[in-house]
Amino acid sequence: MQPTLLILAAGMASRYGSMKQVQGFGPSGETIMDYSIYDAIRAGFGKVVFIIRKDFAEDFKAKFEPKLAGKIKTEYVYQEMDSYLGDLKAPAERTKPWGTGHAVLCAKEVINEPFAVINADDFYGRDAFVKAAAFLNSKCSEKQYALIGYELAKTLSEHGTVSRGVCQTDDKNNLVGIKERTRIYREEGDIVYEDEKGKHKVPSSSSVSMNFWCFHQSLFPFTEQLFLDFVKENNANPKAEFFIPIMAEHFIKNRDGHISVIPTSSKWFGVTYKEDAPVVKESVDKLVTGGEYPPSLWS
Question: 215 in a domain, yes or no?
Answer without folding.
Answer: yes
